[in-house]
Design goal:
By secondary structure, the protein is of the alpha+beta class. Helices cover 26% and strands 48% of the residues. The chain has four helices and six strands. Strands 1-2-3-6-5-4 form a six-stranded antiparallel β-sheet.
């Protein structure tokens, strides 16, 4: 998603892990923001179970420096997204989507994401 926003805006965007905390013995909750010009374009919450993810990928996730897509790409992991639900707000200002990132029929990540179209358009036209 980070690269997609950068491609749309034709500029660098910021990626920040706001919080990453354990929510069980092996489960984690990660909250991220992708921003442009200080505007939070995408906010996402990601759940993952450390038992399902290879150690070298988990080690990078726990560093909280890069997005999941970047980490998977770097390690040449072929995964796909399985959409659960996609909703567009009645005012057209945001899209929310829930999906899973799946690798070899194993769910590695559960993602809930909000994309602020109004802020994306404002940054694109600014």
């Amino acid at each position: 998603m980070e690269q997609t926003v950068a491609d749309i805006l034709k500029r660098n965007v910021g990626f920040n892990v706001i919080e990453q905390t354990p929510i069980g013995k092996t489960e984690y909750l990660r909250k991220i923001i992708i921003s442009a010009d200080q505007f939070p374009i995408v906010s996402a919450t990601v759940r993952f179970d450390s038992k399902a993810i290879p150690r070298h990928i988990l080690a990078e996730l726990l560093r909280k420096k890069e997005g999941i897509g970047t980490i998977l790409q770097k390690h040449h992991v072929v995964a796909h997204r399985r959409a659960i639900v996609i909703t567009i707000s009645t005012d057209g200002k945001k899209i929310t989507r829930d999906y899973e990132i799946v690798q070899d029929s194993s769910v590695w990540f559960q993602v809930s994401e909000e994309i602020r179209l109004d802020l994306l358009y404002a940054c694109q036209n600014g």
